[in-house]
Amino acid sequence: MAERSKSPNRFTVILEQEEMGFSGYCPALPGCVSQGDDRESALENIVEAIELVLDVNSEPLHTVVSAASLANEIQEIMDGRKEDGLPLTGISIVEVGHGGQVCR
Q1: Which domain holds residue 48?
Q2: Rounded to whole angstroms, how far apart are CA atoms 10 and 92?
Q3: How many CB atoms are closer than 10 A to CB 28?
Q4: 1 in a domain, yes or no?
Q5: Which of 18, 34, 55, 61 has the highest Cβ tally under 10 A?
């Protein structure tokens, strides 16, 4: 679903705790974001958003996010949280597979 990592059916998402709920980002699909009242609903919602993006794209996506790009994305989130006075905790990196299964 978002960042295609170890197999074509796996994507990395970033879950970020906000003041009211959680946000989810998919670095491999710019603009693919979602949110939820809690971590679980944010994960479900970002998985759904990823599936919708993949459904509307008629051509295969060839986006692979490098470790360096992912690290830069996380650093930007951390910098933004610091600027906003939010705690630097509350960020999760999750890899999801086909059907929204969390990969371990």
Answers
A1: 11-103
A2: 16
A3: 22
A4: no
A5: 34
Tell me, yes or no, whether 57 lies in a domain: yes
Cα 87 to its chain centre, rounded Å, is: 19
CA distance 84 to 59: 39
Q: Would residue 3 count as lying in a domain?
A: no
Q: How far apart are CA 34 and CA 25, in angstroms?
A: 7
Domains in the chain, number:
1
DSSP annotation of 102 reads E
**Pairwise CA distance, residues 2 & 26, whole Å:** 5
Residue with tokens 């996506």: 61
13-71 pLDDT, tens per residue? 999 998 899 999 988 887 899 999 999 999 999 999 988 888 887 666 655 567 777 78
**Domain harbouring 29, CATH code:** 3.30.160
Strands (E), the chain: 11-18, 21-25, 33-36, 91-96, 102-103
